[in-house]
Amino acid sequence: MSSSKARFMCQSCGTVFSKWVGQCDVCKEWNSVIEEMPGSPELVDAKVMSENFFTTLSANTEQFVATRHKTSLSEFNRVLGGGLVDGSVILLGGAPGIGKSTLLLQTVADIETLNDFVYISAEESVGQVLIRAQRLSIVNPRLKIASSANLTQILNALKDIKPNSIVIIDSIQTVFSDAIQSPPGSISQVRYCTLELVNFAKSHNVIIIIVGHVTKDGTIAGPKTLEHMVDCVLSFEGDRTCDYRILRGDKNRYGAIDEIGVFSMTGDGLKEVANPSAAFLSDRTSKVSGVAVFSGIEGTRPILSEIQALVSKTGLQIPRRATIGFDVNRLSMIVAVLSKRCRLQFSDKDVYINVAGGLRINEPSADLAVASAIISSTFNTPLPANSVFFGEIGLSGEVRQSYLAFSRLKESEKLGYNHAYASISDIPIEIDMNVTRIKYVRDLLAVIKTTS
Ligand code: TYD
Ligand code: MG
Q1: Which entry of 2, 103, 215, 345 is 20 to 30 Å from 130 by CA?
Q2: Looking at domain 279-451, which CATH architecture does it have?
Q3: To test ligand 1's pocket by mutation, which of 100, 102, 236 has the most ligand atoms within 8 angstroms of CB?
Q4: In the sheet where 387-390 sits, what is the strand order?
Q5: Is the pLDDT of residue 394 over 90?
Q6: Which one, of 371, 377, 375, 311, lies nearest residue 347 by Cα?
Q7: Looking at domain 68-274, which of 3.30.300.30, 3.40.50.1980, 3.40.50.300, 1.10.1670.10 is its CATH number?
Q8: Cβ 173 under 6 angstroms from ligand 1
Q9: CA of 114 to the centre of ligand 1 (A)
Q10: Is residue 2 scored above 60 in pLDDT?
C-alpha cells in the first residue's frame, strides 16, 4: 500500500475525506478541508529490556519522583500546582498579543534550580526576542535564544541538553517537520511535532512549554488530541484593552485545575497581582444601579468581582441576551426564572451582563449576583452599599447554598463589606457581617424595595 497517497483533512475537526470538499460534513466549517500527505511513520525500536520494563512499589522509587521547580511568579506556580515538574510538557494557549511570549520569557529566565534554559522562537527573530528580554530587564547569561521553525533542526540542536532543563517552543503552529508534507499549522504537522516534542521531553527529562494559538472560539488551534498528549494545558486570558491577565489551568496531571493566576501587564512586563479581589473591584462606583458584587471561588481561593447588568427597552423583535465573562445560556435561564417567579417583564427588554476586569465566571453561585444586578437595573435602583451576593438559583426559584460559604464571607469581610445576601442556614460566629438569607429569588425584590 502506498504511504504517500494524499488525503484531505478538515483543519477544524480532523475528519478525513477521500476527495476535496468545500464544507466539512461533520463540523460544517467552510474552506477548512485541505490536502495532506501522510508521512511514513518511523519504525519504533521494539526491543525492550525485560528486567527494566516494570517497576514495583518496593523498588527504589525515588529516582522516578519528579521534583518541582518554582518560578519567581507565585501566581504561575499556583496554577501549575506548586511549580514546574521535570519531564513535563505544558501547552500554553491564548489570543495573539495577550502576553504568552512575555510570560514565558520572564518565567524561564528566573528559575535557579534548572540546568539549561532554551527559548526557541519560530515566529520572531533572535533580535526581536532580545529586544523583549532587554525590555523585561532579563539578566540570565545561561538563557539560550534561537530562532528556528524546523523541528529536526531544533531537536538536533537540543540533543546534548542536560536533564532538568527547560525548553520553550513559541509557537507550535509555526514549527514544521520535513517528515510531514502538509504546511505548518495543519493538523498533521501540529500533531506530529507535538508528539515528537513530548517524546523528547520524556526521554531527556526536560520540561517543554509549547505555545499554542487559539481559534476564534477560544480552543487551541489544532486537534483536541493535542490536549491529550501533553501533561498540562494552560490558557492565558484577558481583555487586551485592560491590564489584567488571567492564567487558568484547563488540565493538569500534577495538580488541581481551576486554579487561576492573576497578573497585570505593565510597561516592564507582567507583574503578579497579590490581591485579585481588590484588583477586580478597584474601579467600583457605588450608588449605581445594575451593579452587584459577587463573592466567588476560583480554584481554592475566594475572589470578589463586580457583575454589571443593563436592562433596556429593545428595538428588535427578539430581545438580545448578551454576556461578557458569563454563560449566555445561564443568563437566559435566570431571566426566565425572574420573569416567572418575580413577575418581571423581560420580553420587550434587552439584557446585557458584563463581568468587570476581564474575569470569566463559570460558577453557578454567581446566579444570585447576576439576578440582583438585573433587578437593580430594571428598577434603576442601586443595590445596598457594601454588600455581596452569592447563591445558585434553581428553576423553581429557590436559592441553593454555596460551598465554601465561610471563605466567601471571610474574604468579603476582609475587603470591607458588611452585608451578605445568600442562602446560608447557619452563619459562622467568627464572621462580623450581617447576613440576609435569600431562600427564594423573589426575596430579592424586598432587598431593592428597602433600598429605594
Ligand atoms: P506578547 O508576549 O508578544 O504576546 P503573545 O506572545 O501572546 O502574542 O505580548 C504582546 C503585548 O504585550 C504587546 O501588545 C505589548 C505588551 N507588553 C507590555 O505591555 N509590556 C511589556 O513589558 C511587554 C514585553 C509587552
Ligand atoms: Mg508571541
Answers
A1: 215
A2: 2-Layer Sandwich (3.30)
A3: 102
A4: 321-324, 349-355, 301-313, 291-298, 387-390, 419-422, 434-437
A5: yes
A6: 311
A7: 3.40.50.300
A8: no
A9: 25
A10: no
